[in-house]
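Moderator note: this is an archived Q&A kept for reference. The question asked for a predicted structure of one protein chain; the sequence and the answer are reproduced below.
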Amino acid sequence: MRLPGQALAEEHERLWDDKLEPLLLWALIMVVIAGLEWWRAWTKSPPSPWLFTVVAIGAIAWAGWRLFKALPRLRALRQGIDGERVVGQFLERLREQGYQVFHDVQGQNFNLDHVLIGPAGVFTIETKTWSKPLKGDARIRFDGQTLQVGGHEPERDVMAQAAAQASWLKALLAESTGRSFEVRPVVLFPGWFVEATPGAHRTLWVLEPKALPTFLSNESVRMEAADIKLAAFHLSRYVRAGERETRP
């Protein structure tokens, strides 16, 4: 089984290993060469350090520029990894209430951060670890149709993303099990105050993670133990098959 935030962690590792680490290594090599040339000059050898110095400065500047460009994405990935892991640890507690918990389920060019399968049904969990504004409105408002984060609508359509993920999982389980399971989308905003109007959560839950257990407990029992086991078995088989395909 995959871990919370594993897809983000893999992207973070690829970004560092493939693009940033070689740049820093190249810059270090040029610094060493320049240092050797200056040492030759100090020891009265016939050196020519200026060329290597210019090259080293250029390499450092180039690597620094690439690193500066990549830092926002690295910070965002790190923040996302931390958020998914915190939420994942929180969701693990729901196993005591009869829920099966899956993390980082891979689709085609996307992933489900978490999946819950239990008495209240099947849920896809999308975690949004977004930074709060330094000042001003630090609330999330959801009326069932529109979502406002800090007083502004987000650039990405969070609700459409969550609905598409739930639809994909429903189709996957139907194809695998031959049964139609209702899948409900949930979006969690760790650390935010979520303000919702009555009726906002009919088709999509937008919550702070700590509110999720209460919402689940208020739901009627939709799945018996046999159905939970069936859906969880087929989803775990899908996850393991995907891991075998990507394993070197």
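Archived answer notes: The radius of gyration is 25 Å.
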